[in-house]
Every structure is written in C-alpha cells, then in structure tokens.
Amino acid sequence: MSQSDPASLAEAARILRRLADDLEESAAALGSTARGPVNADPAGVPGAGVRQLRAVCEATAAGARGGGSALQKTAYALADHAHARSALADGARAAGLAVADAPHESTPRLTLTPGIAGIADAEQVAARARVLVEFTERRRALAESHGCREAALRDRLRELTATLEEVARTLR
Fold it and tell me: Which residues, including other chains, have CB under 8 Å from residue 127's CB and lie 6 or more apart?
C-alpha cells in the first residue's frame, strides 16, 4: 500500500459511501413493505423474504460504510505520510545527507554524502554521523507509523470481509 494514491482511495471511499446510502434507502423502502398489514409485497415476495432482503441491505450498507470510512482514513493518512516523507527528505538534504528514493519502502534511504574526511575533520565527521543517526531514527519512526496504519487498515478490512461473508452465508 505504500505506493497507493490517496486520491484514488478517497474516490473508492466516496463510491462505497454512495453504495451504502443507496442500500439504506432500499432497506427503508423494504421496511415499510415488510411491516405492512399484508404478508407479501406488491411483487408477491413473502413478508419474511422482504424482511430478510431488508436485513441483507442494512448489513451490506454497514459493511460498505465501514469500508468507505476505513479507506477515507487511509487516504488521509497516506497524504499525511507523503507530506512527512517529503519533509524528512528535505530536512535530510538540508542537513547535508544524501537522500535516495526507495521504491519498495515507505521512506527514503539516507546516507552520508560522499567525500574525503581525515583526522583534521574528526569533529565534522562526528557531527555528520550524529545527524545521520538522528534522521535515521526519524525515518524509522515514520516507517513504523506507516506500517501500523497499513496493519490497522488490513485488520479493519478483514473484519468487514468476515461480516459480509456471514451475510452471504445467511443467504444460502
């Protein structure tokens, strides 16, 4: 997910919320039919079938809304991560570190810039090493935070999948 596009996730979230709205409207319409004095709706579906269909619409709407919410939060977190990643890279460059893009990692790689240093530069070499350690720690914390958000999204989507699988089992 580290290569995901926040705008695409936000659009998917919007679509899921719209689906949830549509399903909730359908459930409400079915609810008035299922509670009516007759045992079937105008199309001849038995009242129990209408109630089951309403329950499925409601459960599916809740799943779609939950998925949409999870994707929206993730879109925001990815945009925030991209900003923090950029700020880390800019700060590291300003501090004199070399910054390399790491396509399969959530943060850039940081190294000391190449150069020649000797005994006369010991203090400068030590200062550069401390800067590298500081920015490496920031990089680690940023990557860890991003990994936690990814894991939370996976867990939430697994929960929603299990809920919707249960809905599907009740239909069999």
Answer: none
Could you give the C-alpha distances from 57 to 30, 72, 80, in angstroms and in order? Answer: 9, 22, 34
In angstroms and rounded to an integer, the radius of gyration of the C-alpha atoms of the chain is 26
Sign of the C-alpha dihedral computed for residues 78, 84, 85 and 86 taken in this order: positive
Cβ atoms of 36 and 54 within 8 Å: the answer is: no
DSSP states of 91-135 as a string?
Answer: HHHHTTEEEE--TTSSS-EEEEPP----GGGHHHHHHHHHHHHHH
Q: What is the pTM of this model?
A: 0.74
Residues in the chain, how many? 172
70-129: pLDDT as tens digits: 999 999 999 999 999 999 999 999 998 999 988 788 899 999 887 777 677 788 888 889
> What pLDDT was estimated at residue 47?
74
Angle separating helix axes 122-171 and 47-94, nearest 10 degrees? 170
Cα–Cα distances in angstroms (integers) from residue 107 to residues 9, 71, 80, 104, 154, in the given order: 20, 21, 13, 9, 20
